[in-house]
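Design request, tokens follow.
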């Protein structure tokens, strides 16, 4: 099975001024595409050649795992973004209230987890094996599938996800205490 680069679910400039077109192009066309190309070359004529990304993630290690997991993580990340405002479903809202107390507390905890992740990686909102929502900091290519969690939302905290600055600063940025989060 040849793995392919997903199609972005939005135009490259759709997230401006929060994420620049240049950042999306670099992140998607260089990093994400690079993981797809590298994985395909690594798995050719191996036991992983006909596996799905999820199977490869659960059964591999080293470079094969890293590239497969980064494809999965990036697919999930890009599919979770939109230029349109979205609201959680009623059930997700109920679970957030149940497990975090309120939407504001969830946002605060999720953003703090992302900001406090040392080095490169991902912040995830997932459902654990007990059916509870959990916020997880995962380093490098790690993801919730390894613990049999069901991922719902992710934030990429690798530097290439945000280091190209937008031409103008957005008027309204989310804040954690005194820290602006873009």
């Amino acid at each position: 099975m040849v793995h392919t680069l997903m199609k972005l679910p939005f135009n490259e400039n759709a997230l401006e001024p929060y994420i620049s077109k240049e950042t999306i192009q670099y992140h998607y066309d260089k990093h994400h595409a690079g993981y797809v190309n590298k994985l395909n070359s690594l798995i050719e004529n191996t036991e992983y050649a006909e596996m799905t990304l999820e199977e490869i993630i659960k059964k591999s290690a080293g470079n094969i795992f890293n590239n497969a997991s980064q494809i999965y993580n990036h697919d999930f990340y890009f599919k979770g973004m939109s230029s349109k405002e979205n609201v959680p479903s009623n059930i997700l809202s109920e679970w957030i209230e149940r497990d975090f107390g309120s939407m504001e507390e969830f946002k605060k905890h999720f953003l703090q987890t992302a900001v406090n992740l040392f080095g490169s990686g991902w912040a995830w909102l997932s459902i654990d094996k007990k059916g509870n929502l959990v916020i997880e900091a995962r380093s490098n290519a790690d993801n919730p599938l390894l613990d049999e969690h069901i991922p719902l939302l992710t934030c990429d905290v690798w530097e290439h996800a945000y280091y190209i600055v937008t031409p103008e600063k957005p008027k309204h940025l989310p804040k954690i205490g005194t820290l602006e989060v873009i």
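Comment from the thread starter after seeing the answer: thanks! The longest strand covers residues 121-127.
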